[in-house]
Each structure stands twice: as C-alpha cells, then as structure tokens.
Amino acid sequence: MAHNKRHAAAITAVDANKTYALEDAIALVKSNARAKFDETIEISMNLGIDPRHADQMVRGLVGLPNGTGKVLRVGVFARGAKAEEALAAGADVVGSDDLAEKIQAGDIQFDRCIATPDMMGLVGRLGKILGPRGLMPNPRLGTVTMDVKGAITAAKAGQVEFRAEKAGIVHAGIGKASFPAEKLIENAKAFADAIVKAKPTGAKGTYVKKVAVSSTMGAGVRVDAATVTA
User: Which helix (H) or strand (E) is 226 found in, with range?
Assistant: First the structure.
C-alpha cells in the first residue's frame, strides 16, 4: 500500500502533457525517488528505426563518465596467461571448459561476458543460453578481444551496453538517485551521444523521436530531445 501511495504521488507530481528540459526532468525524477533503497535512474530513447532490419539495428557500448553506481560482475573465457591477466584485472569469474559447464548447469555469476578470440569455438556452443540474456561476447562490442585487461577495466568503470528492442527503444541505467544531478545529466548526455553516433544507415526521417527519464519506482518524465542530444 505504501508503494502504491508513493507511486501515485510521483505520477501526480509529473505533468504527463509536458516535455521537460533534461535538467528539470532529472531534478523531478530525483525528488520523486523516495523508495527505501537507492533507486536506479534510467533513460529511454524511442528511435525512428525498425530493428528487424539489419541495416537499422542500434547496438553498442558506452562508457558513462560518472559510472552507473552498480557493481558489474565480469566473466571471462580465457586460458593460460590471459586467464591470469583477467584475474589480475578484477574479473569475477574466469575459466574455459569448466566455466562452460557451470553455464550449461544454469550457474551464471556475471553480468558481462568477455572472451579471447581463441575461446569463441567453445563460447559459440553456449549461444542459446548466453544470447537471450544479452551476454554473448561480440567482437564489434569489444567483448571478444585479446585486450582482456582493457575490456574488464572499461566494464568495471561504468560501461553500459545498449541494444534497440523490437519497438525501436533503447534504454539504460545512468546512475543512482543518490548521484548529484550534474553527474546524472553528464551520463545522460554521454549515453544520448553514443546513440546518435550509432545511427544506422537505414534510418530514415526523425531518428530520436522521444526521450524519457525515470527511477525504479517512479513515473516516467518526458524530456525535450534537443536538451539531451545538443
């Protein structure tokens, strides 16, 4: 009941017919984040694309300047010296055949998966498990690489992955409600900049249609796209 009252109050505080400047939207979302835990602040962007077409897919990684406030667990497929490098760089789980066996048994203890190129024969057989969870290593995303240390460091520093959903929406957590507003604004603009740079060749018409920010338990706030992408 308390949650319902908080949610109703948050919705009442937001004018659904109004589009806010990013700074005002962040301030409103922060003021409405009244849960007993540190809520995640999320940005959503509705794009003028059809992800079902290969030339209109929007996907990539972006490093947020102020991190996400979330501790990301990193799993690495590597052997020998590269496995040692991964452990030294702070990977949470490192292995090869033994790690594959754990994954097949449903024991997945990571949020980002990195692999050295020589391990992709093994990792490829796990596609039906890792793929639907968005965990499949991909060379275009820098998660299939010999620079294991660099990939782990970037992931731990606040790098987020984005991928357009069927409706053409991309979203990501850009920090916590406890973050200062200016840090959330910087993160939001960094994310939006990455989305704009990832504009696919097949996209026609208006690319960024709608933008909104919200907190875990709060109402969404519509944002003037120009104040995010400028």
Answer: helix 225-229
